[in-house]
Structure formats: C-alpha cells, structure tokens
C-alpha cells in the first residue's frame, strides 16, 4: 500500500483535465488515471489503473496492481488488496440501514452512523455491475459474476453469481511455481 502523499501539479487539478483529486490522496508509483475522477482521502497502491467516472472516498484503500474500471464507486471502509480486478459500474455499500435523518428529524452527520467495512482479498475479480454490501469479505482469487449482489462472505477461490450471489463452483488451485 502506498504510504506517502504525492503532491499533484496544479495542471493535474485544472478544469481541463476533469480530475478532482484532493491533496490528502496517497498515490503509489505508476498509477494511470482516466479523466472525470473524484478521489479524496484514499490510498491507491503502485501500478494501478483507474478508469473514467470513478469515485474513491476517504479511508478507502486500493492495493498494488489493481484495475478499477469506469463508473465504479468505492466508498469509505472498503479495502481492496493487491492484484484485484473491479469491473465497470461496481458499487460498494458501507451502511446496512442507511437513513437520511436521525431520530430528531435532522439530516444525519458522520456522528450519527458507523462505517461498516468490506474487504476484497488479493487476486479477486468483481464483475461489471456487481453490488457488494457492507460487512463482507471476498476471498483470495474469488470471482463475483457480473450483476451479482454479494450479501455474505465469498470463500477464497469461489465463483459466485446471482441476486443474492450463490456459490457456483470452486476454482482449481494455482500450480506451485517454485523451482526445484
């Protein structure tokens, strides 16, 4: 994970580039970004590719070598580990019971709710149009089918799909690549 804030040039923040990247964003090396981004208070690791119309909120973390496709929303409380693929239009959720107002009828503020976390483990792939609810872990090398709604943990190496997402099968383990 990137641990340093890289200052952005004024040109990178100009309206002609259509980027909204706050100074508190921690970007790793060799991050490739499309236009129309909104990044604030987040961390993005080395060698990531971020497509157009992506928002990554504060306290979200994206590991190294990740591909975040266009029109994706990564909210506060989401951790994406290394080597993860996120398809187009994926939405993450961080509140099981969202409300606009609190008990006295005023608009809620950050003090009225607690962020619920989501973790996408190393090497997982999330298909286009999937929705990942809060309090969920998607295991290493798991695959979530396009359009799925993930409501519970996905085991490592599993392929899930549907609404709600259900186990279809397991992926064969990777061969041992150690030299003898």
How would the blueprint of this fold be written?
Blueprint: E1 19-21, E2 26-27, E3 32-33, E4 37-39, E5 43-44, E6 49-50, E7 55-56, E8 61-62, E9 67-68, E10 73-74, E11 78-80, E12 85-86, E13 91-92, E14 118-120, E15 125-126, E16 131-132, E17 136-138, E18 143-144, E19 149-150, E20 158-161, E21 166-170
Structure description:
This protein is mostly beta strands. The protein has a single domain (10-99, 114-169), classed as UDP N-Acetylglucosamine Acyltransferase, domain 1, CATH 2.160.10. It is built from no helices and 21 strands. Strand 20 (158-161) and strand 21 form a beta hairpin. The model is unreliable at 1-14 (pLDDT under 50).
Give a summary of the structure in a few sentences.
With 180 residues, the protein is mainly beta. It has no helices and 21 strands.
């Amino acid at each position: 994970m990137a641990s340093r804030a890289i200052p952005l040039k004024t040109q990178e923040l100009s309206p002609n580039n259509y980027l909204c990247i706050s100074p508190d964003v921690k970007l790793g090396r060799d991050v490739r970004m499309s236009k129309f981004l909104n990044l604030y208070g987040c961390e993005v690791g080395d060698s990531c590719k971020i497509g157009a119309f992506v928002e990554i909120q504060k306290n979200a973390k994206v590991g190294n070598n990740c591909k975040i496709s266009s029109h994706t929303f990564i909210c506060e409380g989401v951790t994406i580990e290394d080597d993860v693929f996120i398809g187009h239009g994926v939405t993450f959720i961080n509140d099981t019971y969202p409300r606009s107002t609190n008990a006295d009828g005023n608009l809620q503020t950050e003090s009225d709710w607690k962020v619920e976390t989501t973790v996408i483990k190393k090497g997982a792939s999330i298909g286009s149009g999937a929705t990942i609810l809060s309090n969920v872990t998607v295991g290493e090398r798991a695959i979530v089918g396009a359009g799925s709604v993930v409501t519970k943990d996905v085991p490592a190496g599993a392929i899930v799909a549907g609404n709600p997402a259900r186990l279809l099968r397991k992926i064969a383990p990777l061969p041992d690549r150690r030299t003898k």
